[in-house]
Specification:
174 residues, mainly alpha, Four Helix Bundle (Hemerythrin (Met), subunit A), 9 helices, globular
Length: 174
């Protein structure tokens, strides 16, 4: 069985967006129960030279829904400036990406296989075809930022485990 563009992109995005929504919900619950300021979590960085939690969530949004939109448009660029969202606003971004990706028909995404596109940042460009963009650029970035969200919440004390990160896996049905 061949793996389609939908399988390598949207299906993976939805799995991790679902787990990220769950991780964020556990973070909010933990903060409420333990008097942790969510505004502080939104600004938390793993290291001073890294982007804050807020950027990590925006990047998960951008490297999922934004990646598919970029493939369709033929160009993908870094995320545009977004308003400084609070924790609930960041949860809304993950929910919005999930809803929009769930509405995308498999056939529409699979029809983009082989489509030429590019990553563009100012004058710098990297040419791709859709599949290579997803596999070598979008997914690695997507997983990096999702992992960083998880890590920041773990450092804040949120009781998370690997299954929280994995989310709902696509297992064989008997």
């Amino acid at each position: 069985m061949a793996i389609s563009l939908y399988d390598i992109s949207v299906a993976n995005y939805l799995q991790v967006l679902g787990s990220t929504a769950g991780v964020l919900a556990k973070g909010a619950d933990y903060a409420s129960a333990n008097n942790v300021n969510l505004a502080e979590i939104v600004e938390t960085r793993l290291r001073p030279d890294m982007q804050p939690f807020r950027f990590q969530v925006v990047s998960v949004f951008h490297h999922s829904l934004g990646a598919i939109k970029g493939i369709k448009a033929g160009v993908f660029s870094p995320p545009p400036a977004m308003p400084d969202l609070d924790y609930a606003g960041l949860q809304g971004l993950v929910a919005d990406a999930t809803v929009e990706l769930q509405a995308m028909p498999r056939e529409e995404i699979d029809a983009l296989e082989g489509k030429a596109m590019k990553f563009k940042m100012g004058d710098f460009e990297i040419p791709f075809i859709a599949e290579n963009f997803v596999l070598s650029f979008s997914l690695p970035n997507f997983y990096f930022h999702a992992t960083t969200i998880y890590d920041i919440l773990r450092i804040a004390g949120v009781p998370l485990g690997k299954m929280d990160f994995l989310g709902t896996m696509r297992v064989s049905k008997p």
